[in-house]
Design brief:
alpha+beta, MetI-like fold, four-stranded antiparallel β-sheet, 30 strands, elongated
């Protein structure tokens, strides 16, 4: 060969090698970069919360710490305020620590002072005055913008309601609520342990005339032991009390004048005192602090029988304080709880995930604290009159390995369970981000699809490559490969709108077909053993056996179609779906695993068939000829020689089909009910990881918890694929070593 031609060939070979290598490395690098991207978005889910001192200043001399009864904070972390015994609200600029304004709540009686202040975390404060009256004061922040666009706030104080002193005496503690229906509720605790409930209902007729109906009642079933803590829900319809001997009580106040005691239970067997109560956001769960520093949450749970009232039950136990819990402040944004103990230490915990998020403290013990509405700031005043503001970076408190993959006891549930429910119509909703039902749904749909696809694809590949004629192979293989080109959205569309209703109407026909087809197939093979002795039929056996079997299978399907309604009428009382619900308690969902088995299996069959058929066809003909020459039948040759030699390729095809089924999105999105349940029942649907991403990502706020959990789902799918491919390659290499190159 000419040296110039040889050099040109070598140069082109080197260029091709470098281009192919560069292309391969680019693909690998792109996959790794994609993995890094989704992992980077996911990692903040597991980062620990952070806090930082944003401001620290001393209260002015005219506002001594001993006179401060409560504190508050605006949602922008720009203004804080404290409430003093004289009823004044003193506002501070947090950026500069300077005094901004001082507003005074009008005393209901001359020279009346504030004896106590209650607050449930909102902008409304309950001021118990020294004359026994109770006023509800709301702090308002009105933003203003100047010509340069700078923002400032105007502070105002609005009296929402005023309750007169109770006739029974002076209360040592008092709570009040204004319901959305206009009802006013006040609960007063007296020194002799009496609990007085006052309720006022305001109604208006069609002429606009307003009437008020006032009712009050001393709770006859109040505890004999001293009441040490009280809590009232936002609507004033449920009252909670804790006692010094460790009892919890709950009353239903929905009927004015007729309170009903729902619970009286011993919360702690060692009779330690309940020192603080607080209602978690949503008013379903009750946070309980005790004298030993314990913090737990309770909510009503049905008895084992599921009938009657729901008694309170301890559900979550949070991080313990070193001393008695003195105050509990629930977040108005999520299920987080800010708790203060008597040593002046603050804990921030999340109820659902049971995560201890932060521990905060000042130079001196903290006396009182406030939680911002957005949950991004904590304001506190210590014993020395120093005010401190911490900024809190805590974007994903509800996420932990337990909430993502373990059973969690959610509000209003009777037991711990796996649940995926990312949104609700209520702002008080408790997000449920368990990925276990989605992983289960992924495996469930893949299992039923592979259960149909693997036998059909392998038997078709064996027959086409080893028993069929060359012309048949040239016809069937391109047709099956064309199946792979059908868009998955088309398959999902047909499965949802055509196949699912068809199966629902003819479910008995389907089950009867599944019984008749294999039975008829075996009987036809036995009959063929006698018929094959006839001379003309031997020509059919050489690659055209399907011509004899196809009519038999068609007749079996036709028989099932005719007999199906009769079988359903005789065995299932004419309605299989109703019979299934009455006898097994199982509902038949139109878009279920049967539909997925056919639709997803149809999408996977071409992949497995093509790779398996190529592997079988590439087994050297000499092996087949040698087996036949030694007297083995065609089936013995396929079973003992061809299949073992082609097993590496067949296994690789199955694993690739498995990966295709796991990652499929549109078919399972359109052909299932997208219900995140954990049942192997074939009559139910499922929600796989892939379709969950497609459903949820358009509504997920950028950078939010749901957004990052969806990226975590993508990481899990990536890991599934990586593990499957790794296992497939390891097994394929071992099969190659055992059975040779082919």
């Amino acid at each position: 060969m000419d040296n110039k031609v040889l050099k040109r060939v070598k140069r082109r070979d080197r260029l091709a090698r470098w281009l192919i290598s560069a292309g391969g490395m680019t693909v690998i690098g792109s996959v790794i970069l994609i993995l890094f991207l989704i992992v980077e978005v996911t990692l903040p889910l597991f980062q620990a919360p952070r806090s930082e001192v944003f401001a620290r200043f001393a209260l002015p001399p005219e506002t001594p710490a001993t006179e401060v009864l409560s504190a508050g904070l605006d949602e922008y972390l720009e203004t804080s305020y404290v409430i003093s015994r004289d009823g004044s609200f003193t506002f501070f600029d947090l950026r500069q620590g300077r005094l901004l304004d001082r507003l005074a709540a009008a005393p209901p009686a001359p020279k009346a002072l504030v004896a106590a202040v209650e607050n449930d975390g909102g902008p409304v404060y309950e001021l118990l005055w020294s004359d026994g009256s109770l006023s509800l004061e709301q702090v308002r922040f009105q933003p203003h913008f100047d010509e340069q666009g700078s923002r400032s706030f105007e502070h105002s104080l609005e009296r929402v309601a005023l309750f007169p002193p109770p006739a029974q005496g002076y209360p040592i503690r008092s709570l009040a609520r204004l319901g959305e229906d206009g009802r006013q509720t006040r609960v007063s605790l007296f020194a002799d342990n009496r609990l007085l409930v006052e309720q006022t209902e305001v109604s208006e007729d069609f002429l606009g005339n307003r009437t008020e109906e006032h009712q009050e009642q001393v709770l006859e079933d109040a505890p004999a032991e001293a009441v040490s803590a009280l809590a009232l829900d936002r609507e004033g319809k449920t009252l909670y009390a804790g006692t010094g001997s460790g009892f919890l009580l709950r009353w239903n106040l929905e009927e004015p004048g007729s309170p009903v005691l729902l619970d009286r239970l011993k919360a702690f067997s060692d009779q330690r005192a309940v020192t603080a109560l607080g209602l978690v956001n949503g008013d379903i769960s009750l946070a309980v602090g005790d004298e030993q520093g314990g913090l737990s949450t309770w909510f009503p749970v049905s008895d084992e029988g599921g009938a009657g009232d729901k008694p309170l039950r301890r559900i979550h136990t949070l991080e313990r304080h070193h001393s008695a819990v003195s105050a509990i402040l629930p977040s108005r944004r999520d299920k987080s709880l800010l708790s203060l103990d008597r040593d002046g230490a603050l804990h921030l915990d999340h109820m659902t995930s049971e995560r201890h998020l932060l521990a905060l403290g000042g130079l001196s013990p903290l006396r009182l604290c406030a939680f911002s509405a957005r949950g991004n700031g904590v304001f506190a005043v210590d014993a020395d009159g120093q005010a401190v503001l911490w900024t809190v970076d805590n974007p994903h408190p509800e996420v932990s390995l337990g909430t993502l993959f373990g059973k969690v006891w959610y509000e209003s549930y009777n037991e711990p369970t796996y649940v995926w429910q990312s949104s609700s119509a209520s702002d008080d909703f408790e997000p449920k981000f368990s990925l276990t039902p989605l992983i289960f749904g992924t495996l469930k749909g893949t299992f039923y699809a592979m259960l149909l696809a693997i036998p059909l694809a392998l038997f078709a590949a064996i027959y086409t490559s080893q028993f069929g004629s060359p012309r048949l192979r040239q016809l069937i293989k391109p047709m099956v490969e064309i199946m792979a080109a059908i868009p998955s959205v088309v398959i999902g569309f047909l499965a949802a709108l055509w196949l699912a209703p068809l199966i629902e109407r003819n479910i008995a026909v389907l089950f009867l077909s599944l019984a008749l087809l294999p039975t008829t197939f075996v009987l036809a093979l036995l009959a063929w053993q006698g018929a094959r002795r006839i001379g003309p039929l031997r020509h059919i056996e050489r690659g055209y056996e399907f011509l004899a079997l196809a009519p038999v299978l068609v007749l079996a399907v036709a028989a099932a179609w005719v007999l199906g309604p009769l079988v359903e009428s005789l065995l299932f009382q004419g309605d299989f779906r109703q019979w299934l619900f009455n006898t097994a308690g199982t509902r038949y969902d139109q878009r279920n695993c049967i539909v997925i088995a056919f639709a997803l299996g149809f999408a996977v069959i071409p992949i497995i068939f093509t790779i398996a058929e190529d592997s079988l066809s590439n087994v050297p003909g000499s092996l087949k000829a040698a087996s036949l020459a030694l007297g083995a039948s065609r089936w013995q040759t396929v079973w003992r020689v061809i299949l073992p030699s082609a097993s590496p390729g067949i296994f690789a095809g199955i694993m690739i089909g498995f990966g295709r089924a796991i990652g499929e999105t549109m078919i399972v999105l359109m052909a299932t009910g997208n219900t995140a349940i954990m049942e192997w029942n074939i009559f139910n649907g499922m929600r796989p990881l892939s379709s969950n991403i497609a459903v949820e990502i358009p509504e997920a706020p950028f950078g939010g918890t749901l957004y990052r959990i969806l990226f975590l789902s993508a990481v899990i799918l990536f890991m599934f694929t990586f593990v499957l491919n790794t296992v497939a390659e390891i097994v394929r290499q071992r099969l190659r070593k055992k059975y040779g190159r082919f």
